């Protein structure tokens, strides 16, 4: 089989986002959202074990993978930084490699809603970037943090699993901590970060109750917190956070969240008419009206509040899809496929 360096070089040249290595299948890569064969060579168990040992980087890391069944890391191959996930399936290692951009993009070059770049000027609160795996959350967060790095003299602490984009400090001082290597967990690293004099904190993922509680505390005490969730809308994000807590604590969490949440950006990548993918975004800027809805637990009404917030830069996912249809970037059929409310898209995507 091709070496990892050769695989990444080919994927990079062909514009792929991910590489998948699975026993008894040829190497595959994802281009414009679709998996395709890289060549016709079928991977053997020995191939897969060899790649797993190589990507583990040390016997200690490989032994941990062999014991636990998963390994997360990041490294550079063929000049391209990659996020690595090695896992067992049917007793044999499989590999998923995500190719990261070689340079952190400028926030203005990502096609985000115009109200997103000003979020870097916030001094406290929580900004969530949400969406399914592969929707560009990491890239958006990296661009936001790097914009802060180039504009403000502050201290940025990131908690990542693993570290993906590596920042080059400019006006800011930056500490990037990797879960499993520099700290035991997101929750422990986040609690420690409050003693590290940060202005800005990035949480790779708000996975559990302890992490969410500490993130809210950080925002309440004057820090700007960026974090991700795997949710499909602003309303879903609020429900996901609240439902992590027991019923008798949910009223208090809604109150705290209503006071600290500043914005929720939800992303998805959708196929363009002539190849490639377009970024569609829902953006909720938290207003007093939305704070009241969060406190009252009226999350079903949040979508309507977002839909009528165009004056401050907000938009729903369906509004974003309609705009992409009207601009000629995507087809009406694609918009309907990815829509939350198909009837709205049918009426407006003309």
Number of domains: 2
Q: According to CATH, what is the class of the largest domain?
A: Alpha Beta
Helix amount:
25-40%
Largest sheet: 7 strands, mixed
As laid out across the biggest beta sheet, the strand order is 9-8-10-11-7-12-13
Q: Name the CATH superfamily assignment of the largest domain.
A: P-loop containing nucleotide triphosphate hydrolases
Structural class: alpha/beta
| Radius of gyration based on Cα positions | 21 Å
Q: Beta-strand level of the residues, as a percent range?
A: 15-25%
Mean pLDDT level: 95
Classify the fold: give the CATH topology of the largest domain: Rossmann fold
Summarize the helix and strand pattern as letters.
Answer: HEEEHHEEEEHEEHEHEHHEEHHHHH
In CATH, the architecture of the largest domain is 3-Layer(aba) Sandwich
Count of helical regions: 13
Please explain how this structure is put together:
- With 350 residues, the protein is an alpha/beta fold.
- A hairpin with a 2-residue loop joins β4 and β5.
- It has 13 helices and 13 strands.
- The radius of gyration is 21 Å and the shape is globular.
- The chain has two domains: 4-99, Beta-Lactamase (2-Layer Sandwich), CATH 3.30.450; 107-315, Rossmann fold.
- The model has no long low-confidence stretch (mean pLDDT 95).
- The strands form two sheets. A seven-stranded mixed β-sheet has the order 9-8-10-11-7-12-13, sandwiched between helices. Strands 3-2-1-6-5-4 form a six-stranded antiparallel β-sheet.
- 36% of the residues lie in helices and 25% in strands.
